[in-house]
Amino acid sequence: MVVRSLRRGCARLFLLAGVALLVYAAYLGLTWPDVRALATHNPSSTAFIDRARAERRGKTDVAWAWVPYAQISPQLKRAVLVGEDINFFTHEGFDAAEIHKALVEAWHERELPRGASTLTQQVAKNLWLSGRWDPIRKLREALLTRDLEHHLDKRRIFEIYLNVAEFAPGIFGAEAASRRFYGIAASQLSAEQGAELAAGLPRPATWHPGCTSTAYRRRVRILMGRMTKAEFLARQL
């Protein structure tokens, strides 16, 4: 009797789990974003920008201005790549080998890990997901990353990233950040200015141009050194 009751209990549990999975799959299907549309249409907002606007309600609105890929300085592009995802143009959305390498470099440089997530993964998170970590969010991020790589070319993904990344509290995208901190267009950024903006990406709440943090300034110098060694990126940009 005990064994039979246990079997019935397990059967009910598996049945409930199966129903829950089917319901969640249906929910994903109904709410899944139209990734393909991003090939020709810019996003009207992002999950991160919406959250920032909600948090700043009644205060100054977020700063955000979209510019085409060609109107963003190659120096900033190179700084972002060496700081966040140096193999972006050669991987397919995920880069396990680079993550391991980044952790080793971070240990030796006593810095934040470089490339803990690829740029494509960051685009997926910024556009549609929350900033908190949980297994379901990571699963959705992985699926969206796959879709982005399938439907968009690399430069389009990079263009979206450069336009939606948060460079400082309430400041999204290269153009808004360039205007706010240097009073110039994103196309005019120098190598040092590009490194200063890219250095703040891991911690936009506290790291940005003008910040006096020793750790931030050290990261700027590290990125400048990496940019000098990564001349090959000019061919990909």
Summarize the structure in short.
The chain is 57% helix and 3% strand. It has 237 residues and is mainly α.
Describe this structure in words.
- Helices cover 57% and strands 3% of the residues.
- It has 237 residues and is mainly α.
- It folds into two domains: 31 residues; 200 residues, Biosynthetic peptidoglycan transglycosylase-like (Penicillin binding protein transpeptidase fold, Orthogonal Bundle).
- Strands 1-3-2 form a three-stranded mixed beta sheet, covered by helices on one side.
- β2 and β3 form a beta hairpin.
- Second rung of CATH, namely the architecture of the largest domain: Orthogonal Bundle
- The succession of helices and strands, N to C, reads HHEHHHHHEEHHH
Q: What composes the largest sheet?
A: 3 strands, mixed
Mean pLDDT: 87
Radius of gyration: 21 Å
Beta strand count: 3
Instruction: Estimate the global geometry from the Cα principal axes.
Output: globular
User: In CATH's first tier, which class of the largest domain applies?
Assistant: Mainly Alpha
Helix tally?
Answer: 10
Measured as a percent range, the helix fraction is: 55-70%
Count structural domains. 2
Order the strands across the largest sheet as they lie in space.
1-3-2
Class of secondary structure makeup: mainly alpha
Proportion in β-strands: under 5%
Pick out the low-confidence regions: 17-27
Gap from first CA to last CA: 70 Å
The CATH topology annotation of the largest domain reads as Penicillin binding protein transpeptidase fold
Q: What's the CATH H-level superfamily name of the largest domain?
A: Biosynthetic peptidoglycan transglycosylase-like
